[in-house]
Amino acid sequence: MPSVYQLKPAFQRTLRPAVGRLAAVGVTANAVTVAAAVLSIGVGAVVAVWPDRAWPLVAVPVLLLVRMALNAIDGMLAREHDQRSRLGAVLNELGDVVSDAALYLPFAFVAGFEPALVVAVVVLAVIGEMTGVIGVQIGASRRYEGPMGKSDRAVVFGVLALWAAFGSPVGWIGTAVLAVAAVLLVLTVVNRARAALKEGAA
């Protein structure tokens, strides 16, 4: 199924010159991964502390764009500049899950969002990423099938953050968007599990 993740190759081509310069001055993939997680935790904390202010919500999509770039950069540093490591693999998977939880759970404090639904989406996102990793355990590759992968979730929460930040009533629209996201996350889990099983069997 289509996913924002499919745009990643073009995004990486744009970033490749900058990645080369970062590698030349000694920036490591692991440092970039940790930086992305720390930034996500920081912005999430700001939203949690000031859920009724507009500027923390505006910071969310800005951070998501920065984080998307950092996620692409750490992978390129690892693959293309001989920085692969076991620690890097652990940090990459944990960093994504921690970043998502830290950044999205505070939406439960923002007026108009249904807290239980926000939590459900975050939990399903964690299950989806775990399902992708399980593929490796059964002899398949790390699975990234959609339709609600990491990049897609970023688009959903980024748009919702801007919607709320500029004073638009969240209400039933936010509830509907999160409900659809939850359904798509369940489908994502199923798609990743099926793809892993099929690849593992082959």
From TrEMBL:
EC number: 2.7.8.-
GO molecular function, one term: transferase activity
Keywords assigned by UniProt, alphabetized: Membrane, Transferase, Transmembrane, Transmembrane helix
InterPro entries named among the record's database cross-references: CDP-OH_P_trans, CDP-OH_PTrfase_TM_dom
Transmembrane segments: 21-48, 54-73, 117-139, 172-190
Pfam families: CDP-OH_P_transf (PF01066)
Superkingdom of source: Bacteria
UniProt protein name: CDP-alcohol phosphatidyltransferase family protein
